[in-house]
Write a structure and sequence with these properties.
Elements (H helix, E strand, L loop, with lengths): L6 H10 L5 E3 L6 E3 L5 E3 L4 E3 L1 H5 L1 H12 E4 L2 E4 L11 H12 L2
Antiparallel strand pairs: 1-2, 3-4, 5-6
């Protein structure tokens, strides 16, 4: 995931350059200075870091391989024996990153 800066690093960067901008990846929570954001949800202005965006192909393959089933109120995954309920594709992607990419 993106390098997660601690509070001291963020304060130091801001103090040294008042134009410093930080972005937070909506999937991994990584905070980086000047991170290149590849995927943007214009409804919520969520942004995705390059590393999480690169995992999108693996995520799509994971779904296509039958590891996920969709219900009208969300998704369930094979690794939890389809007992979990995950609402929305964004939350499913966060789950995938947490469980299989960390």
């Amino acid at each position: 995931m993106g390098k997660k800066l601690n509070e001291f690093e963020i304060e130091l960067a801001i103090k040294n350059d008042s134009n410093t901008q930080f972005e937070t990846c909506c999937y991994c929570g990584g905070i980086e200075e000047g991170m290149v954001m590849l995927e943007v949800d214009y409804d919520s202005f969520d942004v995705c870091c390059e590393e999480c965006n690169d995992m999108k192909d693996s995520f799509d393959e994971w779904i296509e391989d039958g590891n996920v089933i969709e219900f009208k109120d969300g998704f369930a995954t094979q690794d939890a024996q389809y007992q979990n309920r995950i609402k929305g594709e964004k939350e499913l992607y966060k789950y995938f990153i947490k469980e299989f990419c960390s």
